[in-house]
Specification:
Blueprint: H1 2-14, H2 16-54, E1 58-61, H3 71-76, H4 96-104, E2 109-123, E3 126-135, H5 137-143, E4 150-152, H6 157-160, E5 164-168, H7 169-175, E6 182-187, E7 192-201, H8 206-211, E8 212-216, H9 217-223, E9 232-237, H10 243-254, E10 258-260, H11 261-264, H12 266-304, H13 306-314, H14 319-354, E11 356-357, E12 367-368, H15 375-402, H16 405-409
Parallel strand pairs: 3-8, 5-7
Antiparallel strand pairs: 1-9, 1-10, 2-3, 2-6, 2-9, 4-7, 5-8, 6-7, 11-12
Helix pairs in contact: 1-14, 2-12, 2-14, 2-15, 12-14, 12-15, 14-15
């Protein structure tokens, strides 16, 4: 085996320039593949982190997974009804204290009750429709990052102000209102109540900044005439990977619909999976191109060393030994290229992670490229490089092993 390796090294050194070019091709392929994988997975993780920080990991609502059967259908087994007026459904999660206690007994995370409804905000003769969310401030800050998004005031000010209101800064700008101003909120039932703006937030999500407001839970229950009623429970888990299991168990326990963050963003998760397939396909294509360079140099070596091959076979070397020599050459070039590519990939990833920039439209903070360095990226890129190198070396090796030494020595080839 050592003799075969020494022969392979001799062949590689004999064409040093071509060997360096092929090695550089593999190194560039591995390096840029690692950097691209780090950037793409980093952006995916950064997006998912921002997503799950902005929404509840599990949200229990007052909806039902399947609609309740109609009493008339149960009593008469009728196919259809016409002209019936169902009793007004007040909806909401019944016995919220009992429901939250039942969840808190086994959920590894934080819970926050919510009552969300539509309201019209009026200030200085202007009206703005928005979604009003009644919350317990101390519990809400544990299940969302709204406290970090505050631009003026503190989210905890809601706890100290019975009729306090926290509004998106975009909505406040449209109305010309600011912290300390008093506005009027009117519910869908027509009941109006005055609130005082105690803070402004900015999430970067236009829908929230323009159409969402927070107020104390009790005040919203009074405005919407739903005393001691909530229509949502937000759950923030210690382990986000348990969201599906927690949602399923909560739904069985309470009977209300519970949705995990994965279910709420199922289309997005599928898009990420497709993007990963595309990424690794591109990586494989890059390394396949590098493999053609290895194939070319080893094919040239086979052609130039035909007489040496004939002599070695005449001395008793088997065909598999000849194949092994040229496969070793391909793997050697691939190994050197993979090692250099890993160093290049680490350098590129580190450099990209150090790049900082800010957006002119909202230059409130300096951000950076989301780079995620994982050993798996280096392993996959190196494995693909070695595989393509071995294949590129094996194809010419078969030709070398099939050469007839007698024909070569006689000058037939």
């Amino acid at each position: 085996m050592m003799l075969l390796l020494e022969i392979a090294l001799t062949h590689v050194r004999a064409r040093l320039r071509q060997t360096l070019v092929s090695t550089l091709g593999v190194a560039l392929g591995v390096g840029f593949s690692v950097a691209m994988a780090s950037l793409m997975e980093g952006s995916q993780r950064d997006f998912v982190t921002a997503l799950i920080d902005a929404i509840a990991h599990v949200e229990v609502t007052d909806d039902r997974r399947n609609p309740a059967p109609q009493p008339a259908a149960t009593a008469y087994a009728a196919v259809a009804f016409h002209g019936l007026r169902p009793v007004e459904d007040t909806r909401g999660i019944r016995n919220p204290t009992e429901a939250i206690t039942a969840l808190r007994n086994w959920v590894d995370g934080d819970l926050a009750p919510r009552l969300t409804g539509q309201a019209v905000l009026r200030y200085a003769g202007q009206d703005l429709g928005l979604s009003l969310r009644g919350v317990d401030p101390a519990a809400e800050v544990r299940v969302s990052k709204i406290a970090e998004d505050m631009r003026q005031g503190s989210f905890h000010d809601l706890a100290a102000t019975a009729n306090g209101l926290i509004l998106g800064d975009t909505a406040a700008t449209r109305l010309g209102a600011g912290v300390g101003d008093t506005v009027t909120l009117t519910s869908a039932s027509g009941l109006a109540k005055r609130f005082r703006i105690v803070g402004l937030f900015h999430t970067g999500v236009t829908g929230s900044d323009e159409g969402l407001a927070y107020a104390p839970l009790k005040a919203v229950q009074i405005l919407m005439e739903r005393q001691n009623v909530i229509n949502g429970i937000a759950i923030h888990l210690r382990d986000i990977n348990e969201a599906d299991a927690v949602a399923a168990r909560a739904e069985r326990l309470l009977g209300y619909k519970a949705v995990s963050w994965q279910q709420a963003n199922e289309g997005l998760m599928e898009a990420f999976a497709v993007r990963n397939v595309i990424m690794y396909t591109v990586v494989g294509a890059i390394l396949l191109v590098a493999g053609f360079g290895i194939f070319n140099i080893i094919s040239t070596i086979v052609h130039e060393k035909a007489r040496d091959i004939a002599i070695l076979k005449s001395l008793g070397f088997a065909e598999r030994d000849m194949q092994a020599v040229f496969v070793f050459e391909g793997v050697l070039i691939g190994s050197l290229g993979a090692a250099g590519g890993c160093l290049l990939g680490f350098a590129l990833s580190s450099y990209m992670a150090s790049i900082t920039f800010s957006f002119a439209s909202n230059a409130v903070e300096v951000t950076h490229l989301p780079i995620y360095m994982s050993p798996l990226h280096y392993v996959i890129a190196s494995a693909l490089a070695l595989a393509s190198s071995a294949i590129a070396g094996y194809l010419p090796a078969r030709r070398a092993a099939a050469l007839n030494p007698v024909d070569i020595i006689r000058g037939a080839s």
